[in-house]
Structure formats: structure tokens, C-alpha cells
Amino acid sequence: MTENDKASSRPTVAEHVSSAAIAVEHLVKVYKQTLAVDDISFSLPRGSITGLLGGNGAGKTTTIAMIMGLVLPTSGRVEVLGHRMPEESAAVLGRMNFESPYVDMPMRLTVRQNLTIFGKLYAVNHLADRIAKLADDLDLSDFIDRANGKLSAGQKTRVALAKALINQPELLLLDEPTASLDPDTADWVRGHLERYRRDNNATILLASHNMLEVERLCDRVIIMKRGRIEDDDTPEAIMARYNRTTLEEVFLDVARGRVNGAKEAAR
Amino acid sequence: MTELSLHRGISIHRIGAMILRYWYLLLSSWPRLLELLYWPALQVITWGFIQYYIAQNASFFARAGGTLIGAVILWDILFRGQLGFSISFLEEMWARNLGNLMMSPLKPIEFLLSLTVMSLIRLAIGIVPMTLLALFLFHFNVYALGLPLIAFFCNLIFTSWSVGIFVSGLVLRHGLGAESIVWTLMFAIMPLACIYYPVSVLPVWLQYVAWALPPTYVFEGMRALLSENSFRIDLMLEALAINAVLLVASFWAFLALLRSAKKHGSLLSAGE
């Protein structure tokens, strides 16, 4: 193979963007006087798990909401599974799903009723089998015919995860998926997410305040602060750069403005 | 949900899924089901006795028997049609489920169509027993109006959907802080729609406003039918034309408010 052949077989920038699960370019969101997201760009390859970290108000939720099409960007571009959001959202909404503390599953409906409705909305084939499989995988069988409002926090989280997985999404957006869960249930949810990514080559973008969770699950971490990307690398590389042994310490360095000092110490 | 794709690929299955959701919801709470029957029944009983009393003392009401009770039933079609639409929408806000729906392949037009079907179902649950009460207690058979009743019903339900779509858009944009509009906006129309009195009672300048509202044509038409036994098809056609404009305008407003909600991030904090 000649150098020219190699060059021609290498993906162009445009091809790279279109093959990415998520491509964000110069994304900006301004709410009245508040700059929530300030010119961020990143691209997530298919099959990856990426953690989006940052303190409260860092812009994580707004970024995820713009990726989902729930919030319109002030400027910039979002592509999901090769389609521009929100203009072409009809082409991708059936191939993605999400879980967020900002939404609930309807409380008065049973778990089975909720999953049936969302399964129909996502046009899931063999829906009864799919619900049975999710009930088995996520251990929902004991309460599948109970109203969602009568479940414990851990059970509700598993139901929300079942809803997020009902259409076997290629792209899963998770905002604090294990918040308010006991360590055992949280660990169990993480294990399930790992298996789901592995079995389906799914892409997962995860916003979390749980640094252990991010270290365990993510191949890459994007740290945000005041709407900007403060750092973007593998967890190991980021910890090495800050001369820290845990992401929690890195998070505190970033949150408390000790970034330069930590980086210099590492050098 | 994307507003740009609303004109193509409407899915009956997704509409069916939403109707199923509201049906489950309706059956999950017997007090709410009872409430659908309770208020219309109370209305018809109260106004039935008023009609009965006035008819003994006023020549017009004696001649046009059932005018008041007929007006009450038609008003309830208008009011409860809108409530049936809007309450199903509010259920999504109360349940914090709107984000789930917006992120699903459900399109705005499909969402709104499912709400219109639910408005008919909820209306039927409340209105059919109401009309039967009117028949058995006060000997007023609204179904005896025949074909004109269909024209009255269609025009009223179309107006109720227009109002429902518009106020749902307002709640979408401004959150549950705007919920009171859902319950009260129809009452702003009430004096101008001339439910219990003819349009000629209004000052001349206000009559122009009244004639811009489709329900005014319906109530005038009902009075003409009951007192003069004449069906004013011209009034029904004019109401239908205004309704067509209102439906298109309300849908456009809903999309604009949805877009504004996305611009301002209101969908993320769809509470108060």
C-alpha cells in the first residue's frame, strides 16, 4: 500500500464526524444573561462510554439536553448517529434513549403498563418478550404489576433503566443514573450498563457526580466547569496529568481552581 | 419530537400508545372517574330546576322549553371538551413525564391527536349520563335535536380543542405556574359566547367580538331551533370556517410555544 493509498483509506474529518455516535462542534447555550455552555466541541466514537463530569451548574445537563434536542443551542452544531439535532431528530429518536432525574415514569401506572406504552412508542417488535427479558435482566418480576409510585427508589431506578433500554438503543444518555441508590443497587446497575455496552456495542454518555462510578465505567472523561471543557482524556491520563490517584481528587482540584498548581506539580 | 417532521409519517400506533396510556390512567383512579360524572350531573340538575321554575313564569321559556337546559348541556360539551384535552396534557406535567415523551419518537401532531381522542372519551363519560338525567328528570331529550346536534357538537368540540391546544402550549412554555389558565380561559369566553341570552343583548361593539367566536353561532343556532324550529345551517357553516382558522392558529401557536420552551430550557424544569 502506497502512502497515497493509506491517505485515501484514512477517514476524512467529515467521515469521522458522521461515524461518531455524538459529534458536538462549537456548542454554545446562553439563557438570557447566563452562559450555560461556552463553545464546547467533542466527538464520541460508537461503542464508547464517556463520563461527563463537573460541579453543579457546570453545563452537563444543558449539554445532554441539547444532544437530546430538548434544548435548542444558541449556536453550534450537534450530530447524533450521523443526523443533525434537532432538525433530523425523527431519524434518531427511535435509536436512542435516556434516563434522567429530571423526568419520572408515570406513578399511577404499573411497571408493565409503563413499559408497554413506551415499547409501543418506540415500535418495539415482540414487545411482551422484550418486557419479559428486561424484567428478568433487571430483576423487575416481583413488582412488574405494581404501580410505579409504590416502588422504592432503587426499584424506580431499575424501572427507569428498563424504559431507557426498551428499544435496545444504540445511544444511551444517562444523567446521574445511580443517584440516591444504595451502594449495592448502584453497583448492580453499573454492572448491567457494562454488560449492555459490551453486548450491543452501544455508546453511553454518562453525567455523574460519582467519581468511582466514572472510573469504573468510562473509557473517557470530559470535565466541564462554567460551561467550558476543562479537560478531556482517559481517566488514567487525567489522573496522571493532575498527579492524583483518584478522579475525586481531580474533581476537587478543578472545582476549587487548583488546576494549574496540580498540573505544574505533576510536571 | 420534532416540529419539522410533523407533516410526514404520522403513526397510528404511537397515537394508540398514548390513548392506551390515558386509558390506563383513567381506570387507575375511581375518584377521578367519578369526578367526570359528578360536575355535569350537578350542573344539569341545578339548571334543570331553574329552567322548570322560569318556564312557569316567563312566556319565552315556556315557549322554548329546554333552552336553558340545552344551553347547559352544550356549554358542558365546550367546557369539558377543553378540560378533557387539557387535563390529559396536564397529567404529563404532573407526572414529570413530558421529557420521556419529547425524547421518544412521538411527534407533536400525534401527541395532540391522542389528546383530542381522550377529550372525546372523557366527554362521553361525563356528558352521556348528563343527557340521560336531563331526559328522565326534566323530559328534555337533547338527542331529539337530531342532525343539528351533530353540527352543534362538532363546532363546540373543535373550539374546545383549539383552546386546549393553545393553553397546553402556554403550560409547556411557562410550566405549571400557568396551570390556572387551563381552568379559567374558557370562562373568559362564556359571557361573549351568549350561552344563556341572545347576541342582541350585548352592546353593538361587543357583538362584533361575540361573532368572532364559533360557540356564539352554536348557541344562537340552538335558540333558533328550539324557539322557531328552524335550523340555521348558515350559522353552522360560518362557525365551521372560524373553527378551521382557530385550529390552524392554535396548532401553530403550540409549535411556536414548544420551540420557545426548547429555546428557554423550560422542558427541563417543567414544574412551577
From TrEMBL, chain A:
InterPro entries named in the record: AAA+_ATPase, ABC_transporter-like_ATP-bd, ABC_transporter-like_CS, ABC_transporter_ATP-binding, P-loop_NTPase
Gene3D superfamilies membership: P-loop containing nucleotide triphosphate hydrolases
SUPFAM superfamilies assigned: P-loop containing nucleoside triphosphate hydrolases
Keyword Magnesium: no
CDD domains given in the database record: ABC_DR_subfamily_A
GO molecular function, one term: ATP hydrolysis activity
UniProt key word Nucleotide-binding: yes
Keyword tags: ATP-binding, Nodulation, Nucleotide-binding, Transport
Domain ABC transporter per the UniProt entry, residue ranges: 22-251
Function: Involved in beta-(1-->2)glucan export. Transmembrane domains (TMD) form a pore in the inner membrane and the ATP-binding domain (NBD) is responsible for energy generation.
Family according to the record: Belongs to the ABC transporter superfamily.
Protein's UniProt name: ABC-2 type transport system ATP-binding protein
Species this chain originates from: Bradyrhizobium sacchari
UniProtKB/TrEMBL annotation, chain B:
Keyword Transmembrane part of the UniProt annotation: yes
Domain ABC transmembrane type-2, first and last residues per copy: 31-261
UniProt KW keywords: Cell membrane, Membrane, Transmembrane, Transmembrane helix, Transport
One function term, GO molecular function aspect: ABC-type transporter activity
Origin: domain of life: Bacteria
GO terms for cellular component: plasma membrane
Subcellular localization: Cell inner membrane; Membrane
Topology of this chain in the membrane: Multi-pass membrane protein
UniProt xrefs under PROSITE patterns: ABC_TM2
Transmembrane annotation, as ranges: 36-54, 60-79, 111-138, 150-172, 181-199, 235-258
InterPro entries, per database record: ABC-2_transporter, ABC2_TM, ABC2_TM_bact-type
Family per record: Belongs to the ABC-2 integral membrane protein family.
Name under which the protein is recorded: Transport permease protein
Species of the source: Bradyrhizobium sacchari
